[in-house]
Amino acid sequence: MEIEPRYTFVPLAQKNLIGINDKATQECLTKWGIKGNYVVQHFSFNEPFQQYHKYHLAEAFFKDSVVSKELLTKQGNRWARQGISASTVEIEPVPCSVLNMSFFSKLKDPKNGIVHKSGSICKRYDTELENFLISDNLRGMLLDKECPEYNLYLKDERDEFIFRIFRMLVLGGVLCQYEDFIDPYIETTRAIYKDLISVQKKEDTDLSISTTVLNVIARDSRGQGYFPSDPSHTQNIGFLLVDGTTRETTTFLHQFGEYRLSQ
């Protein structure tokens, strides 16, 4: 019987996330009400990692005393180190296999009803769903199971990490200025996705993604979610990304809220 690794974690300095910190990306995140409402942090860990260790590592991470002192979470309208160690950790593996942006080609084909030939997003009568105003077919595809466009992507495609990032960006924050054209959403998704995942090529094999992605809800001793807080909201999202090659973990946390100038 194999003994599970005893993982320990060390905070790492903030990396220069070239795509996320790019001026054009930051301008889009500001426009959509995302800027100031997300945070990315990096940690290293000490033991080898295999796929079957993912649940054990995630639980160890959120219960680790060093992590709890460093992990930023939303407290009211600001990010703070609240020193919470998890009592329970809910973990969902997230498929992460998309290697190029042709994944979004279906959205750019006018025959599919999301955009016109010009590339502008098709408008529709305003409806409200999950407290979001749906005024075009792109948001309808994301939220409205009754609209024809919803079935453009199958469940396994919608579960993909890149689709989840795209959905987060399109739905935006409290003060979100929507785009008339689809390209800024796709380009910003590409920039964030490229920063967060690692791609490797082994001998005589094609490229593959080496990052393990987990959707996480960490709860405190009272059973309340703090990573993210209010996890029932579709835009409150917490990811733990594990790179077994470099023995690093990355947290990506987004909390729905009003725009703030700085994190």
Précis, in short:
The protein is an alpha+beta fold. It is built from 9 helices and 13 strands. The strands form 4 sheets. Strands 1, 2, 5, 10, 11, 12 and 13 form a 7-stranded antiparallel β-sheet that branches. Strands 3-4 form a two-stranded antiparallel ribbon.
List unreliable stretches of 5+ residues: none
Largest sheet entry = 7 strands, antiparallel
Per DSSP E runs of 2 or more residues, the count of β-strands stands at 13
Number of helices: 9
Choose one word for the global shape: globular
Order of helices and strands: EHHEHHEEEHEEHHHHEEEEEE
Task: Record the SSE blueprint.
Blueprint: E1 9-11, H1 18-21, H2 23-31, E2 38-45, H3 54-63, H4 65-70, E3 72-75, E4 78-81, E5 88-94, H5 105-108, E6 123-129, E7 132-136, H6 137-143, H7 155-158, H8 161-171, H9 183-196, E8 199-201, E9 207-209, E10 211-219, E11 225-227, E12 237-243, E13 248-254
Antiparallel strand pairs: 1-2, 2-13, 3-4, 5-10, 6-7, 8-9, 10-11, 10-12, 12-13
Organism: Ceratina calcarata
Subcellular location: Cytoplasm, Cytoskeleton, Cilium axoneme
Protein name: Cilia- and flagella-associated protein 300
